[in-house]
Amino acid sequence: MTKVFILSSLSLVFVGLYGVLTRKNIVKILIALNIIETGINMLLVAFGYIEGGLTPILQSDLSIANLDKMVDPVPQALVLTSIVIGLGTTAFALALAIRYKNTHNSNLITATDEEG
After folding, report:
1. Who contacts 70 (Cβ-Cβ below 8 Å, separation ≥6)?
2. What is the pLDDT of residue 42?
3. Which of 27, 36, 90, 114 has the lowest CB atom count within 10 Å?
4. Whole-angstrom Cα distance, residue 98 to residue 90?
5. Tens of pLDDT, residues 9-57
6. CA gap 101, 116 in Å, rounded
7. Closest CA to 44 of 11, 1, 75
8. Residue 107 to residue 30: CA distance in whole angstroms
């Protein structure tokens, strides 16, 4: 099951990278960057997962004896932090793109990408 998550997260990263490299529209580039971020977050969670693992809550001597079978909570905490930071930077980048369009009368946001 972990291999499925790793393969899907890597495919998201490559799809996002393709979107960043081939698009001219700044909004589409920001969406592609968010797709890359989602893929990396999935990859971090997949690396921290243990098949049949236990929740990392120490309640008794029995749970302390099974420390090697517990799922690592650090990647999950890093992903939660990454989601919050990604939301803030995306909102800031969109605000900058709108400000740039309004001040320079640019079609960078509304330009259509050429297909093919």
Report:
1. 50, 53, 54, 55, 56, 63
2. 93
3. 114
4. 12
5. 999 999 999 999 999 888 999 999 999 999 999 999 988 888 887 777 7
6. 26
7. 75
8. 16
- How many C-beta atoms lie closer than 10 Å to residue 69's C-beta? 12
44: part of which helix (H) or strand (E)? helix 26-47
- d(Cα 23, Cα 36) in Å, to the nearest integer? 15
Binned at pLDDT 50, 70 and 90, residue 116 comes out as: very low
Which domains does the chain possess? 2-115 (1.10.287.3510)
Cα–Cα distance for residue pair 27/33, rounded to 1 Å: 10
Q: What is the pLDDT of residue 59?
A: 74
Q: Which residues pair with 54 in a beta bridge?
A: 70
